[in-house]
Amino acid sequence: MTKIKKTISDIIGKNNWIDGKDAQKYYRDWLNINGTIPMGVAFPANTNDVSEIVKVCSHENIEIIPQGGNTGLVGASVPSQGKSIIVSFEKMHKIIKLDVDSGLMVVEAGVILADVHAALNETNLEFPMHLGSEGSARIGGLVATNAGGNQAFRFGMMTDLVLGLEVVLPDGQVFEGVREVQKDNSGYQLRSLFCGSEGTLGLITKVVLKLVPKSTNVETGLVGFKDLNTAVKFCRDFSCQFHNFLMAIEFFTDFGVDLILKLSTDNDFPVKDRASIYVLFELGATSSLLDIRKPLIDYLSSNLVSSELVDCIVANSESQRRKIWFFREEQPEGQRLIGEQIKNDISVPIGSIEEFITRAIKICSEVNPNLRINYFGHMGDGNIHFNISPPEGNAAFTEKERGLSQKIAALANEMNGSFAAEHGIGRTKKVIYNELRGEAERDLRLKIKKSIDNQNIFNKGVIN
Amino acid sequence: MTKIKKTISDIIGKNNWIDGKDAQKYYRDWLNINGTIPMGVAFPANTNDVSEIVKVCSHENIEIIPQGGNTGLVGASVPSQGKSIIVSFEKMHKIIKLDVDSGLMVVEAGVILADVHAALNETNLEFPMHLGSEGSARIGGLVATNAGGNQAFRFGMMTDLVLGLEVVLPDGQVFEGVREVQKDNSGYQLRSLFCGSEGTLGLITKVVLKLVPKSTNVETGLVGFKDLNTAVKFCRDFSCQFHNFLMAIEFFTDFGVDLILKLSTDNDFPVKDRASIYVLFELGATSSLLDIRKPLIDYLSSNLVSSELVDCIVANSESQRRKIWFFREEQPEGQRLIGEQIKNDISVPIGSIEEFITRAIKICSEVNPNLRINYFGHMGDGNIHFNISPPEGNAAFTEKERGLSQKIAALANEMNGSFAAEHGIGRTKKVIYNELRGEAERDLRLKIKKSIDNQNIFNKGVIN
């Protein structure tokens, strides 16, 4: 161990190494469920450092776990065995280039998502990736997990927003794919292969991000419905009528609202009449030539009259807008605070959202009718976080209740959806993956893994 | 040869086989440049047929060339050697499912793109892939080439529009990835790997297409500019102001207009005052609640006053709209009729379009100032078809002129763009690919190819 520490310290400098035992912040994950002590954490300063570290580890057969903000939810950013080092990209956080005319940005892998947003403040462009962890999630990790977020139904997932990549491969060679164009059909889409590879195929060092014109004219609203059915019907029509402006269409439940109200007594819910299901929408126009407020208010008013809506509000200020979003984005945190939970990161065809939720609730209540279910997510792409907490007063789940994870996953699969919509497979969803995905499919991934990382140096046991 | 014919005929029936010598339509490509006589052409009726054919060919070591509409431009859909069969998907043209609520469609690989559009006529949805060859290009081929088209800057390329795939692998096994969700991070994005694999990794048999709300309110216009610089500046501002509605923003030259006028005496150019560069735009709104005509006319009027625009027209009828598009879409056909040509399918960062064209013209005129250059393409994503015809009166290029292809490609590469934006590598761009893409990158693709098709049964010599 001392030898490795010395060899790597010689490459990157002593200050850029932490011994494993002192690195709990790095080797345990956000949920504090996964992670064992590695040999250490290395903080490279540039691509060359990364390449040299990889060569050393490859020679010594030491596993490398690449790490961005360590906000992942499937145990893929922390070690599962001790003969390993974490390569943290914290110190590679330069914004290399911002090309406004071309609508793109070249960044190092360690740049935090919120810093990408901030760097665009003075421009007429934005990077359309928004998720709860944007204050700590780093670009390399977002690429490696193919992050989705709130605007994925409109602008796509990370794979759709990455124009180019630089990646250090298991032999230390560098794939130089820092291209600045959307259209590049010069062979297999390697950029897409690394998006969602969860650190198993290469260490991402630079990323070219695609930017879009900024919405200067934004309307955010929250609408309450008496039940899921009316909410889904509303969303279908609304999404079509306002398709051109729709930036986000999210949902959560009244149970979720209570979770947030418990977070702090400062929180007050912006809609007066409580309902069963809430839909959050955000419309945006890039130009003051385009009026969205009037058609929006007209539309909501006529729907209010037809009494499909319990109540609704359109934000009148940025602080009101933030408050609305707070109730959606703090759902994971609100539920984390009430104890153990089973997180199901599901997607189903958007026409089947209601059917999925109805059937999933039934499956749960057959096991225990007192389980506390908090479902919320992205109405625009059918991505539902169907999360379960034990009954009030119970600290933990029973064994049978834990089995629900598998059942909910199987239901999504049966409905032509996914049991790993946004968060990936990592180490924690491998059992489900092996059960629900066919042999031909898994075999394809394993072949690809072996062809690129034959020695299994990168993130051993993740996905494959 | 007789043996193979018999074995395959026994699987798919005699009527679904054509001997190679009788199959010129299938073994020569659209440009009539590539293709030699194969053993025959097989027309499977379903996935099982495809799988059985693959098993036979794999056993006998016979190359398979998958073929959709045979509209490819890089020689990837026709054989380059005789120990081969073409698998045509012409007879697999069923639309299996149209799910309006989920905004998706499941089709067999042989469905023609225009038939997808037609099937959506009575719905409020559309499939946002439009290109010149849509009357003959088939979905499987569009996936395998990762087609781009006119709306790629907005809705993405084929890889962004494919939710799921079914693919027959080189051992005859079937990858069952017919999922119906955008968000599926259950391991490497195999759907994206097959998008752009040019028939080298698997035979695509079924595709789940993502649909979007239909624009019911469409405005199409054509604007003339005195030079490229003013056209590019206009596009930059216009794209931002009308971003929410922008469906297409294309361009072509006055030389290109003459090409189309020669196609038939019936064609008349819709803009009165001829200019140097023309920009075609199309705006679309999905709802009658949203007015686009008034802000558009206001915008164009104020720009006309500032005399940046030579002339412009906004279509007043569907036939006028079609006429405008005709001048853009028939550019390839117009140029094909004036003889041999060098087709350069380039993309550059959109901020560098003007620089690229200026430098590329200079490179050409240094070789021969009388070359006829016809550049046109997609302003929204920097995809430029920079096509060259020999000087007036010359039937063919000189050797030195042919070398321009390499030089133009190298220029795009130097500018962080691509020399194969939409059309792929196929067989005809391999020399350029080997020269311009680094060893680490090519090696990655070769490793993937070998890991999946170790015997090199599928489209030998394409890409790798």
UniProtKB/TrEMBL annotation, chains A, B:
Molecular function per GO: catalytic activity; FAD binding
The keyword Lyase is assigned to this record: no
Pfam families reported for this sequence: FAD-oxidase_C, FAD_binding_4
GO terms under biological process: respiratory electron transport chain
Domain FAD-binding PCMH-type: 34-214
InterPro entries: FAD-bd_oxidored_4_C (IPR004113), FAD-bd_PCMH (IPR016166), FAD-bd_PCMH-like_sf (IPR036318), FAD-bd_PCMH_sub1 (IPR016167), FAD-bd_PCMH_sub2 (IPR016169), FAD-linked_Oxase-like_C (IPR016164), FAD-oxidored/transferase_4 (IPR051264), Oxid_FAD_bind_N (IPR006094)
Protein name: Membrane bound lytic murein transglycosylase B protein
UniProt source species: Candidatus Micropelagius thuwalensis
